[in-house]
Design brief:
Layout lengths: L2 H16 L2 H6 L1 H17 L5 H22 L10 E7 L7 E4 L2 E4 L10 E6 L2 E6 L5 E5 L2 E3 L5 E11 L2 E4 L4 H16 L3 H12 L3 E3 L21 E3 L10
The chain binds zinc ion (ZN).
Zinc ion binds next to loops.
C-alpha cells in the first residue's frame, strides 16, 4: 500500500469511528477517546500532520458535545457503570441487582458468585442468565422477560473510574453539580464534564422538561416551582424503591 492509499484507507477507518452514532450516544466519552486514539496513531505513523489532527479531533469533540447536550434530558439510559435494583412492575419485591453489568439474584448468587451479565451490541442490550440460554431484553431501564413480565431498573449508585458514588438524592447537592456541569459544558472542559455526567444521570432528579432549566423561564415555571429540575418518575417517594 503506497502512502496515498494508506492515508485514504486510514481516514476512511477514522470516519467510520466518527460516524458511529450508536457508540456516540451510548458511550460518548469512550467514543471521543476512540476518535482521538485513531488520529494520534495516524500522526505517529506520519499519515497526517499536526494541523490535520487538530481539525479531525475538533470534529470528534464537536460530535461529543452535541451528544451530551442531547443526553441531558434523557432519563432512561442504561449506564454501564451503574448499580441498579431490579423491581417487578407488579410492585413485588426486588428480584436482584445489577452492578456494573453483572446480575446478582436477590435469593443468593450462583456458584461463581453471580447469575448473569448485561451485554449490548448494535442489536440492543439484554440480560443473559448463566443458567440456560434465557435472555431478557433491556430497553432503556426496562427489562422484558420472555414470559412478557416487565421489570424496572432503579439506579442506586454509579461507578466512575473505579469509585462508587451513591445516587444523589439531595436537591441542593444536585443543583450544585448541575451548575458545575453547566460551566464545564460551556467552557468545553471535557475532564470535568465526564466526571459530572454519570453522577447527574444516576441522580434522583432530572432537568425540567418545561423550562429546560433556562434562566428567565425557570423562575416562573410551574412544573418545577423554579428549581429547574424535577424528581424522576421512578424515584417518587411513594415508589417501593
Ligand atoms: Zn421548570
Amino acid at each position: 500500500m503506497n502512502p496515498e492509499e494508506l492515508k485514504k484507507a486510514w481516514t476512511a477507518k477514522w470516519r467510520r469511528i466518527l460516524d458511529n452514532n450508536d457508540q456516540r450516544m451510548s458511550h460518548p466519552e469512550a467514543y471521543r477517546v476512540m476518535c482521538h486514539w485513531e488520529t494520534r496513531d495516524m500522526l505517529e505513523a506520519g499519515v497526517i500532520d499536526e494541523m490535520l489532527k487538530l481539525d479531525m479531533d475538533e470534529q470528534a469533540n464537536a460530535a461529543y458535545w452535541h451528544a451530551v447536550e442531547e443526553l441531558v434530558t434523557s432519563t432512561d439510559q442504561y449506564q454501564h457503570g451503574g448499580h441498579y435494583d431490579v423491581l417487578p412492575q407488579t410492585g413485588a419485591e426486588c428480584v436482584g441487582r445489577i452492578v456494573s453489568n453483572t446480575y446478582y439474584s436477590a435469593d443468593g448468587p450462583g456458584l461463581d458468585g453471580f447469575d448473569g451479565k448485561v451485554f449490548g451490541d448494535s442489536h440492543g442490550s439484554r440480560l443473559v442468565f448463566r443458567n440456560g440460554t434465557e435472555a431478557w431484553i433491556l430497553k432503556g431501564l426496562r427489562l422484558t422477560a420472555p414470559t412478557g413480565e416487565l421489570y424496572d431498573l432503579v439506579q442506586t449508585a454509579q461507578s466512575v473510574n473505579g469509585v462508587t458514588y451513591p445516587a444523589i438524592d439531595d436537591p441542593d447537592c444536585y443543583r450544585t453539580l448541575v451548575d458545575l456541569a453547566q460551566i464545564a459544558l460551556e467552557t468545553r472542559d471535557f475532564d470535568s464534564y465526564r466526571k459530572t455526567r454519570p453522577l447527574l444521570m444516576c441522580a434522583s432528579f432530572t432537568q425540567c422538561a418545561t423550562c429546560l432549566d433556562r434562566f428567565g423561564l425557570r423562575e416562573d415555571c410551574v412544573s418545577c416551582s423554579g428549581d429547574g429540575f424535577v424528581r424522576k418518575p421512578s424515584r417518587q417517594p411513594s415508589s417501593s424503591a
